[in-house]
Model the fold of this input.
Amino acid sequence: MPVITVNDGEAVFECRDGDNLLRAGLRAGVGLPYECGVGACGCCRGEVVEGQVDDLWPEAPGLSARDRRKGRVLTCQSRPQDDVRLHLQLDAHAVPVIRPLRRTVRLAAVRDVTHDIREFVFQADAPADFLPGQYAFLALPGVPRERAYSMANLPNEAGEWHFRIRRVAGGEATGTLFDHLAPGATAQLDGPYGLAHLRPDSPRDIVCIAGGSGLAPMLSVARGAAAHPALAGRRLDFFYGGRTPADVCGEAELASLPGYGAQVRYHAAVSDPAAAEAARWPGAVGPVHELVERTLGERLDAAEFYLAGPPPMVEALQQLLQVTHRIAPERIHFDRFF
Done:
């Protein structure tokens, strides 16, 4: 197996067949920086100073033309051909609490959540070990590239991995999941990954903000907070933003948590005024970040934030929290997906 040496010996690990530099490093417990793991965010940029790698996605948006001219690579899209010397800045926060593993899983159940979101339950032969808010990669039969999906449930001894997945128009992976994969089918699951997981050691109230299939990791965080002894009685505000009333979901799951209506509160906004009026939507109308600000007011300064949803939603929330309210970045947790 190729041996990867980081920063002249700061870290050394082997890369088994089929792995890229990033996943091999994380499996070895090395804090290689990353977020999305699919080549979009650019957080895993590094420089190969010796050795050769195969570029798995030459057009990956995570690398600029300037990066390419300087010989930089994305570790999540680089597979070593031989021993490699790599230069990048390691991140202690990226050292995995639970090292990711590959396993075969079987589709056990499917159910509709909204008109375009379904829950897919995959069953493994070993316990499902992950942190609330993390994600995994699914390799689906007939789909060339893996896809990253967040877990909606909690770690469990039964080996169940629950994913809330939104159908993408023309999407190869979601087309397979929604139209061709029946219970009993098998897939490959690689995980867990992700740094936007629940921080139970924070003394602050919790705010979860979701849009689209970002519902999944935020449900996991909320469920994890409700189940963690250190967070008993902690206030949790859960916000969900949908384009139309038909897109709004998540309240039924939160209603089953202890303290719902008191410590645990659900808020929803619809961004399309015409759809809201047509459906006689009784709730908030407008972007979800505006609802967050109106609802929490001064309490924004006393919360820990978890975000998951479309990039425009996350960007608007970053502007609101970091720029307008000067909330420290270490209190805002999200993994960027595009």
About this structure: Residues 140 and 187 are 5 Å apart (CA to CA). The chain has three domains: 3-94, 101-193, 205-333.
